[in-house]
Amino acid sequence: MPRVSAIGYGAMPLSILGRPDEAQALRVLHAVLDEGVTLIDTADVYSLDGTDTGHNERLIGKALATWSGNRDEVIVATKGGSTHPEERVWRPNCHPDHIKRACEASLIALGVECLDLYFLHTRDQDVPYADSIGAVAELRAAGKVRWLGVSNVTKDLLDVARAIIPVQVVQNMLNLFHRDAAQSRFLRPSLVRRCSRLGIGFVAHSPTGGWLNAKLATHPVVAPIAAAHGCSAHAVALAWVLAQGPNVLAIPGARRVESAVDSVRASELELTAQELSALDAAEFSRE
């Protein structure tokens, strides 16, 4: 899998509750592409509910078709293995038949014959994980998927997946509020470090904290660092995520062009060792 921009774009906010109109969404996508983003992250269930499945993928397909740049330089990562039956209700469905149907629908929604990067979105407690991974392996063997990834996994699930498929990328949550993926336990390397040793990329979703990100601008450690660099608090949070390992990428999302561009440019921000240590030691409330 080729190298991609350290900051990608998580397109989910363009399709869920509170989403902008299509014209605005396309402006955001074109803006991040113009900024040099080469990884766009989506999923079939990024939508309002089950009647709207594929909305985000169709939007990205339209954005790429109307963009003046080189589509071949952009990797679109999508996911299967979840359902969105009602607003605010998400459920896993990793039955092999569902995964195969979801992949076919994603191909149509994105308007391609082969998906660039396909993730198993989650784990379904009702289906053996190896069976779900096996379905993804079949999709790759059939030429419908180029590269494979797993999302929201533990180290043990990663081992199961690696025994069946070549895992190029892991996508898990990592931000200043949720640091588990970057923390070691009982002399065992963190998930981020383990992926690095295996040559696997780590994509951090929700890299500014999801709904918690409003706390960043007034945080007593983040705010002074942002002021010292003349940047946003969100950029500081993203720079911390990228500093967790050479294999780490981040996929912030935004509904406005200004916010999206600000996030992309965070890859240029270099925090000092002292600033990183201060952020490591700081408390970040999830309440």
Task: List unreliable stretches of 5+ residues.
Answer: none
What's the arrangement of strands in the largest beta sheet? 1-2-3-6-7-8-9-10
**CATH class call:** Alpha Beta
Report Rg: 18 Å
Give the CATH H-level superfamily: NADP-dependent oxidoreductase domain
Number of strands: 10
Strand content: 15-25%
What spatial form do the alpha-carbon principal axes imply?
globular
Task: Provide the helix percentage.
Answer: 25-40%
How widely separated are the two ends? 39 Å
Tally of individual domains: 1
- Average the pLDDT over all residues and give the rounded result: 97
Helix-strand string: EHEHEEEHEHEHEHEHHEHH
**Structural class given helices, strands, pairing?**
alpha/beta
Q: In the CATH hierarchy, what is the architecture at level 2?
A: Alpha-Beta Barrel
Number of helices: 10
| CATH fold naming | TIM Barrel
The major beta sheet can be summarized as: 8 strands, parallel
Structural description of this entry:
With 287 residues, this protein is α/β, with parallel strands linked by helices. It has one domain: TIM Barrel (Alpha-Beta Barrel). It contains ten helices and ten strands. It has helices at residues 22-34, 55-65, 96-110, 129-141, 155-162, 191-198, 222-229, 233-242, 257-264, 273-281, and strands at 9-10, 39-41, 75-80, 82-86, 89-92, 115-120, 145-151, 167-173, 201-205, 248-250. Strands 1-2-3-6-7-8-9-10 form an eight-stranded parallel beta sheet. Strands 4-5 form a two-stranded antiparallel ribbon. A hairpin with a 2-residue loop joins β4 (82-86) and β5 (89-92). α1 (22-34) crosses α2 and α2 runs parallel beside α3. The chain is globular and about 50 Å long.
